[in-house]
Design goal:
By secondary structure, this protein is an all-beta fold. The chain has no helices and 9 strands. It has one domain. Helices cover about 0% and strands about 50% of the residues. Strands 1-2-5-6-7 form a 5-stranded antiparallel β-sheet, with no helix packed on it. The protein has a two-stranded antiparallel sheet with strand order 3-4.
């Protein structure tokens, strides 16, 4: 079940693109249920993904090996998504113009 974080709404009131502006929602965690070791964690696996909504915009974070054989993160989002390296070890990924 998914719910918007930072809200007093019931978990069933908002889903996906209907999650209100100013809120985030973890929609789905794609990882083998057999590898789950607690309510919030999994044992190591080769790859996984997370689908989240930010202000109703969907982002999918694929973790593992991409189609070019590189290990890391691949983030899919809105067509006007931007990425901005804002420190030595951090990248902002969001919608619209660079801040």
């Amino acid at each position: 079940m998914s719910a918007c974080v930072g809200s007093s709404v019931k978990p069933t009131e908002h889903y996906g693109k209907d999650c209100p502006k100013g809120m985030v929602q973890v929609e789905f965690v794609g990882c083998s249920p057999a590898m789950r070791h607690s309510d919030y964690g999994w044992k190591p696996v080769e790859s996984a993904f997370i689908e989240v909504y930010i202000d109703g915009n969907r982002y999918r974070i694929d973790i593992g090996t991409d189609h070019k054989g590189r290990r890391g993160l691949s983030i899919n989002g809105p067509m006007d998504m931007v990425a901005d390296k804002h420190s030595v070890n951090a990248v902002f990924v969001g919608q619209g113009k660079k801040p």
